[in-house]
Amino acid sequence: MMRVCHFVNFGAGGGRGRQGEGAGCRVRTAASITAITRQNRRQTNDHIPPTQNDKRTMDGSLLASVALLLMINVVDSITNSIVGPSLVFYVTEMGGSKEEYGMIMSASYLSGMPMMSFYGAWVDGNGNRYRAPYAASFVMGMIGSTIYFLASIARRGGGGGGGSELAVHFILMGRLITGMGSSGRTLAYAWVATAIPRDEQRNVLTLLSMTRTFGMILGPLLNALIAKVDAKLVVGSWIVIPITPNNTPGLILFVMEGLLLVSMCAFLKDPIPTAATKVGRFSLLSNNDDRANSSAASSSKARAIWNALVSFDVALPMANLFFMMCNFTFYQVAIPPVASNAYGWSTVDISNLLAAQAIVLFLAMNGAMALSMTGVPDSAMIAGGNLFFVVGGVMTYFWWKVDAAPWQFVLPVMLISLAYPFMGPANRSRYTKAVHGYPELENCHGIMQSIFNQMFMIGGFLTPNLVTKYGLLSPEQIALSNSPLVLSSWTWFIPITALLLIIGVVYEDVILGMNEMGLIRDKVEVELEEATKTESSALLAAKTVNRRRSSVVTINESLSTRYEMNRRASVEAYGMINPAETRDEISLRERLLEDKRVWEELAKFVAETGEEN
């Protein structure tokens, strides 16, 4: 019997198909296979379910699930707005130092780094079902909040300095476990990406961002209610748990996590399965080919990743993300102690400031999204965001002092709030384009996006310890320095790093010739001017025809749950979802979805025609 095989030709830069042996092999182009497959589909009336690129409307049965995600966001933002302002007071009450406060602030980032990938892998591996991962995140949140609440018992039980040390360790452990649970909230990104039609995803993400802002606005009201709490919880005949304004957030968090767990079990609906989600990752290769390609890819993957990471176009967005997160986290850590020591603010006053900051963040996110869609280049957005850090950082160093007016304390906070939303999506877009520009990374996109997001998490993990150790001045240090400034000269780290990043963006744009901002004449433009109109048209037509089609592995990784979670989480601010996507990101995703559709039709054609032995 004659063996029949297929070779797919995608043009000069095309992807690789299965190559047959002998003269009996049939050669087909991607276009011809697509045409034949469409003809077969018309004849058999066997339609492939539409991809997210197709025009669809959201299933009404998912509205309850969307409402649940909105409720989760509100609850999370409320709890964060009462834990954040009170944490420094809680640590101090338990006998901790400002360095221990910084360590505890870092704890949630430390535990969240591995758990985010864990949740993504869980959903990818269980058929895109979300109930069990969400339940695990809520249970861990309940455990962590319980330990956080019971820190006061640990201090009383330990007695003296040992009790204080044990109590601080309780707070640290509580925040570690809570961080493991809260990292599961990024599952919302993956759920929206798989359950909501593409045209409606931005609306849903915007609603999620709005509810986060709404929750932070409600935070001060709840802080005002618990500000005068002074009670005791008696358990049995010998356990007495004091309930104070500082440990009450742990109790509130426990109750809210429990309510979310019950609500999730009642209302969360998994995305409606399609043919693609039922079979998981699609493939055109046999098991033997998979093993051979996997072995060959693993031998060169580390080298390809390293070469990309040390290249300027990939390293610059990673540096931008790292320092952006460092600078933003600086304020997240410094605001409560500075407001308390320099201005005598209470937790209610601090949460009022954070609520105002949340409003500015939300407005800036929408403004950045509008600018991006009007064609403002990523380079300009990144440079502009860093400029806010330069100005805000200088103001912070000179204006944050014990005799300053409150507006001098607030204005720099609002300026850096403008920086983050403008930089985030544009920087993510630059990184994604750079990675997709390396063909040797076609089986590494998931890993590269995870590495990118880890820069975000590492910045959040390292900064609190450095700020409390080197950046913040204690009241005693301020008195000895004979200066009203409440921050050390290490604060210059913010404007200096931002200025260096602006120089890096301009260098890449002008010297390396990226030219997104149009500061120099584009080389292609010059070449087209020298060519005739006919020659130019032929050149452009050939370039379009020979576009490199994304490989199956690239599509699988770039559309996976883990990839989407890391991509979205890399532009969060105070847990607020940034719905903005640049035009380049939208174009890239549409191209990936189109390539996926062609590969699926090819796989269906191969399966229908079969092989003759």
Automatic annotation (TrEMBL):
UniProt cross-references to PANTHER family, sorted A to Z: INNER MEMBRANE TRANSPORT PROTEIN YAJR, MAJOR FACILITATOR SUPERFAMILY DOMAIN-CONTAINING PROTEIN 8
Cellular localisation: Endomembrane system
Keywords: Membrane, Transmembrane, Transmembrane helix, Transport
Keyword Transmembrane included in the entry's annotation: yes
Protein name: Major facilitator superfamily (MFS) profile domain-containing protein
GO CC field: endomembrane system
Keyword hit for Acetylation: no
Pfam families, per database record: MFS_1
Transmembrane segment boundaries: 62-83, 103-122, 134-154, 166-192, 204-227, 247-268, 304-330, 350-368, 380-400, 406-423, 492-512
Membrane topology classification: Multi-pass membrane protein
Domain of life of the organism encoding this protein: Eukaryota
Gene3D superfamilies the record matches: MFS general substrate transporter like domains
InterPro entries: MFS (IPR011701), MFS_Domain-Containing_Protein (IPR051068), MFS_trans_sf (IPR036259)
